[in-house]
Amino acid sequence: MPKLFVSEIQPQMQVDSAFRIADRQLRANRQGNLYLLMQLQDRTGIISGMRWNADEKLAERFTKGSYVQVQGASQLHNGILQLIVNQINLVDEKTLDPADFDSGNRVDVEQLWTKLGELIATISNETVRKIAESFYNDPAIAKSFCLAPAGIKTHHAYPGGLLEHVVSLMGLADRVSSHYSVLNRDLMLAGAMLHDIGKLEELLFEGELSYSDAGQLLGHLVQGVQMLDSKVRELSVSGFVVDQALVLRLQHIIVSHHGYLEHGSPKVPMTVEALAFHYLDEMDAKLNAALALVESDRTRDAWTTYNPTLGRKILKP
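Below the sequence we write its predicted structure tokens.
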């Protein structure tokens, strides 16, 4: 049977196709009855699937990362497309085409990595440039940077997404710094490169996307500062005299880039660079999420379905 992709599913369709379980949880409804909530994935996207009348035995059988044949019906619930699963069976991965489930070719990683190196080379302050280069020239970090998404669901949630996000932000930081001369361009570019560097340790992304234990307990803002401190210590041990005042301002960009305490930042932006960068980061993330919503929307309406992360519908271009 031909593969039906997530992007092809419309409301009120009968679905019979293979998917990979990106996540699954056993939950209880208001009456206390258990159901299995799954995130069903292929290379075109993710759709939620509900299997009613579930139990722990069923949840243990259909684990995260397994491939399944799903039969069910699609419906819109609060503006979001989902599947009501009637039948679900495990599928041997060897019988499937890996290209149907691999989203790894979404970005040109080699081109982006080269562009990142070119942007780092334009940083004039030696301390800031040396710090950026210490990350860029680290083979383990380079490998992870080219694989990592920027997130699991919200934005740039695909292999290479973090690198795409960072290079985009560095380009924006360059332009905004030329417009507002008060901004320190070097800090803006390095801040853009390093603001999410902690996601290399927060996320597990070489298999199914998930969070590491340290990522759950600390989060990428704290982990990013730890990684920066480690590189600064290495530079100091090598004999390089680090400008600690600039390191402090870089640390502040990392810990404050979410912008608000209620959004997870332990500090709000309190330098002009941190304030400007927060808004650039917010813009790049939200536009990526909006464009992905437009791309994945399967309705024939002029508007997308309501997106709870963005808190709105989007008028399609």
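Residues 272-296 form the longest helix (25 residues).
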